[in-house]
Amino acid sequence: RPFLEILLHALARRGVTRAVLSLGYRADLIQAHFGQRFCGIDIVCEVETVPLGTGGAIARSLRRCLGETALVVNGDTFLDLDVAALAARWQAQKRPLIVGRQMADTARYGRLRVDGSRLTRFQEKGPSGPGLINTGHYLLPTNLLDASGLPPAFSFEADFITPRLAELELEVFETTGQFIDIGVPDDYQRAQTELAAFSAFGAFAARAGSA
User: Fold this and answer.
1) Position 204 confidence tier, pLDDT thresholds 50, 70, 90
2) Contact at 8 Å (CB) between 78 and 7?
3) Which helix (H) or strand (E) holds 78?
4) Measured between alpha carbons, how far is 2 from 7 in angstroms, rounded to an integer?
5) Distant-in-sequence, close-in-space partners of 211: CB < 8 Å, separation ≥ 6
6) How many CB atoms are closer than 10 A to CB 51?
């Protein structure tokens, strides 16, 4: 099954009812597979004709989102995230949120440096040992990038967040949910067994029914 099916099923189980897919290479295949609705989620596609980087992709996708905030997730990362708790944190503080997770070894991810719950900087990949990583999940106001003044293609972390850390007051929401980034072969193989229970809609329906 496509990895994106697993992600959408997981989001549906957490109450998500609408998703904007930021697509590029072979976008036609993804659109044909998922159509306009999948496992109870309305699907909207935002297709890049040229790569726009993480920031450009998020900026264009946010314009297609409805409501006050949007949950941003990576298409190659599984995280069992408590979306309701994340939304409650937003309601309490009304600040953009980045989802962090403690890992035994941060070498391939880099680290989040925080002061209390406030993000102070992104530390580059390399240092090994335990620490807090960026899962690539955010809860953002849908108008966050409207007046950024940045070009169409840019990095969300390097070009937008880092120069504006003080004014953004980006809060870190820590999760302990299951996390797998399939961007390297070892973790791609690990996902074959660890996410087996999430590979069919029946598993999600059963979990949702027992919640």
Assistant:
1) very low
2) yes
3) strand 77-79
4) 9
5) 13
6) 10
- 208 vs 182, more confident: 182
Inter-residue contact 16 to 83 (CB < 8 Å): yes
Average pLDDT, whole number, for the chain? 91
Per this entry, what is the length of the chain? 211
Contacts 24+ apart (CB under 8 A), 66-71: 66/18, 66/142, 67/142, 68/141, 68/142, 69/139, 69/140, 69/141, 69/142, 70/20, 70/139, 70/140, 70/142, 71/11, 71/16, 71/137, 71/138, 71/139
Quick: pLDDT tens for 83-136. 999 999 999 999 999 999 999 999 999 999 999 999 999 998 877 899 999 999
pTM of the predicted protein model: 0.90
- Strand pairing report for 118-123 and 111-115: antiparallel
**CA 156, CA 88: separation in Å to the nearest integer?**
24
CA–CA gap between residue 137 and residue 134 (Å, rounded)? 8
Contacts of 53 (CB under 8 A, 6+ apart): 153, 154, 155, 156, 159
